[in-house]
Design a protein that fits this description.
Helix content: 55-70%
Structural class: mainly alpha
Strand content: under 5%
Strand order of the largest sheet: 1-2
Number of strands: 2
Largest sheet: 2 strands, antiparallel
Number of helices: 14
Radius of gyration: 32 Å
């Protein structure tokens, strides 16, 4: 039944527009598209008027004390004794403003994503992983020996296919024998696409970048958005949503106590610094919950091998003109993401301070 009330399904308008539909309004046919447009305009106007009326008729709550629910008040471990401003703000954010519950919701969601993660491989990628794991590192004599051995194997398979065709044309084998033998050879030739990719990597190292190495890049492509930005966008959306839910109420709740603190000497600046520290803590927790599960999934399913290799060792970063290792780049990427997560949390806090609503 839930699928029938899914708002996102309203974006699929093909079921409405591909055929003419009408409503029976008092025995008069009314075009469904026209009726829907008029209804949406009327409903939007109604809710706008209702929202404005509720806003102008509500009581002024700026000077009203923030009342913590009775259950939370009884569970307050600091009740009846003085505490530091930092401890008070921690309690207000995580308990009174329900940030702890929001973090638990995020943790449950991420646990579900973690347990249902599925690695996406294609056949060539699987074979290339086997090649790269075996030859992982700089080019050596073993690398060239393996390439020669594998090339000879493919040449022998193609020669066997030619011999098989000759025997079939001469009537020495039946159709069934021809089909079975041909399928067996094709199965043995399956890694050829990955082998050509390996040869291309070796050629790049020989001719353009002797410092580069053979590295399986499946895990790096996942971490660095080499296969699309979908996972990154999901992470950004989750981060923004949960930061808004936990940071935006900071200046809206507890206005009375905030005004008292701000009225004291250096109170306003100290209050902002404390709330800024709490926001940074929340941002760090959100960053961990949104990034670490995916990182662990990638490590388990794909792996990130040969971290000391230059960044140009993977196709995705060949054009990067920087003297960095894959480990350096990995730290740079996640360090940058952490920095901007912390920065966004501070900007949200400043916005909440300016709006106070």
């Amino acid at each position: 039944p839930v699928k029938y009330i899914n708002i996102a399904a309203l974006t699929q308008t093909n079921s409405i527009f591909h055929t003419y539909s009408s409503l029976n309004l008092l025995s008069f046919p009314v075009n469904l598209v026209t009726a829907s447009a008029i209804s949406m305009i009327m409903l939007s106007a109604f809710f706008m008027v209702l929202a404005v009326r509720c806003t102008i008729t509500q009581k002024n709550v700026i000077w009203s004390p923030y009342k913590v629910p009775a259950l939370l008040h009884r569970l307050n471990p600091f009740k009846g004794r003085s505490v530091s401003l930092f401890t008070q703000e921690l309690y207000k954010s995580f308990i009174a403003n329900k940030a702890l519950i929001v973090l638990l919701v995020l943790a449950v969601y991420q646990y579900h994503a973690f347990t249902t993660f599925t690695a996406v491989y294609n056949e060539d990628d699987r074979y290339y992983k086997k090649y790269a794991d075996r030859l992982n590192g700089p080019l050596t004599q073993e690398t060239y020996d393996f390439l020669k051995q594998e090339q000879n194997r493919f040449d022998e398979l193609y020669a066997a296919m030619s011999t098989l065709s000759e025997k079939y044309n001469a009537g020495e084998i039946t159709d069934i024998q021809m089909t079975m033998s041909y399928m067996s050879i094709q199965q043995s030739l399956a890694p050829q696409g990955a082998f050509e990719r390996l040869k291309s990597q070796v050629k790049y190292i020989e001719e353009q970048n002797p410092e580069a190495q053979i590295v399986y890049d499946g895990g790096y492509n996942q971490l660095f958005a080499g296969k699309g930005y979908r996972s990154d966008m999901n992470t950004v959306l989750l981060t923004m949503l949960f930061l808004i839910l936990m940071i935006s109420p900071m200046y809206n709740a507890g206005k009375a106590s905030s005004l008292i603190i701000s009225a004291s000497r250096n109170g306003h600046g100290k209050l902002f610094k404390v709330r800024c520290l709490v926001s940074l803590m929340i941002a760090a927790l959100v960053f961990i919950l949104t990034n670490v599960p995916f990182f662990i999934n990638v490590m388990q399913e794909y792996g990130v091998s040969n971290l000391p290799a230059p960044v140009q060792s993977i196709d995705l970063l060949r054009g990067l003109n920087a003297d960095m290792t894959l480990l350096d780049y990995l730290i740079l990427v996640y360090g940058t993401r952490l920095f901007f997560t912390l920065l966004v949390s501070v900007l949200m806090l400043i916005t909440s301070s300016l709006l106070k609503n």
